[in-house]
């Protein structure tokens, strides 16, 4: 989507919100519906921007691997995407992230978030009937 198109959509959405905002309590249901639509549009736009930024930062192979990870573990893929985007915004990533670099990032994240194995010990209470006579 081109930037002028995006700006036009935003402008149209803002005008719709301004028209619906002065209605008072009588038109609360349509206003809520408009607000929900506006929020959904904002979410879609944010996701589109996110995907465009990821396309600029990741190589096609790395994007493919990340999309496969997202199929299995969406929360992990989202965390890796967040990490990559933050690093790119702060200038820590100067070149495109390759598949090998992505794998090393995933390994680092796995080491940091590895769950400790927990052991469960059952202590049974001795019943009154278990007394040795």
UniProtKB/TrEMBL annotation:
Positions of the UniProt region annotated as Disordered: 14-48
Comp. bias regions, Basic and acidic residues: 34-48
Entry superkingdom: Eukaryota
Record-linked InterPro entries: PDCD5-like (IPR002836), PDCD5-like_sf (IPR036883)
PANTHER family referenced in this protein's UniProt entry, alphabetically: PROGRAMMED CELL DEATH PROTEIN 5
Family note: Belongs to the PDCD5 family.
Annotated protein name in UniProt: Programmed cell death protein 5
Top-level taxonomy: Eukaryota, Viridiplantae, Streptophyta, Embryophyta, Marchantiophyta
């Amino acid at each position: 989507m081109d930037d002028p198109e995006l700006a036009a959509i935003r402008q149209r959405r803002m005008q719709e919100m301004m028209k619906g905002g002065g209605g008072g309590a009588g038109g609360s249901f349509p206003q809520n519906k408009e607000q929900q639509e506006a929020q959904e549009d904002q979410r879609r736009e944010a996701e589109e921007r996110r995907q465009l930024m990821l396309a600029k930062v990741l190589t096609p192979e790395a994007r493919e691997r990340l999309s496969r990870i997202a199929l299995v573990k969406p929360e992990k893929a989202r965390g890796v995407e967040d990490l990559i985007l933050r690093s790119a915004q702060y200038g820590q990533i100067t070149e495109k992230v390759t598949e090998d670099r992505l794998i090393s990032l995933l390994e680092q994240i796995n080491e940091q978030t590895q769950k400790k194995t927990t052991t469960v010990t059952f202590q049974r209470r001795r019943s009154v009937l278990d007394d040795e006579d």
